[in-house]
Specification:
By secondary structure, the chain is α+β, with helices and mostly antiparallel strands. The chain has one domain. Helices cover 33% and strands 23% of the residues.
């Protein structure tokens, strides 16, 4: 016995579509967990030291995660917009502390601007009513 199942909705009711993800800058892509992967135009070198000696690692991409309310609150004590942006980039990319800040400060200017656009995606609540996206 074959059965057919059909689902219908009243004419005045529509099934909402999943919201579209915001557009990202070129070289960036959404990951399954909601983070954003950004390919760097110029690789960064992260240097660390330990009792075993110095170690350097080339980084060709960064992954940014959505910010938390705590990240935003913690950034509010910083006096300039540039310092707040750098703090939020460090928090979002997991590059924390002075070493993380130095790493992000060494990015190519175009990579830094691209990263600021990713932070904007995570902090934007969408277009204002009556405006176009």
């Amino acid at each position: 016995m074959n059965r057919r199942l059909s689902i219908s909705t009243p004419e005045d009711q529509t099934i909402p579509e999943a919201p579209a993800l915001p557009k990202l800058p070129s070289g960036c892509s959404w990951q399954d967990d909601g983070s954003v992967r950004m390919l760097l135009k110029k690789a960064l070198t992260k240097e660390t030291s330990s009792p075993a000696g110095k170690h350097s690692e080339d980084i060709s991409e960064l992954v940014f995660r959505d910010l938390t309310a705590g990240d935003i609150i913690d950034s509010s004590g910083l006096l300039t917009g540039g310092k707040r942006t750098l703090f939020l980039m460090c928090a979002s990319s997991g590059q924390s502390g002075p070493a993380g800040e130095m790493l992000l400060r060494s990015m190519a200017g175009s990579d830094y601007i691209k990263a600021t656009r990713i932070i904007d995606v995570f902090t934007s609540d969408g277009p204002m009513t009556g405006t176009s996206a």
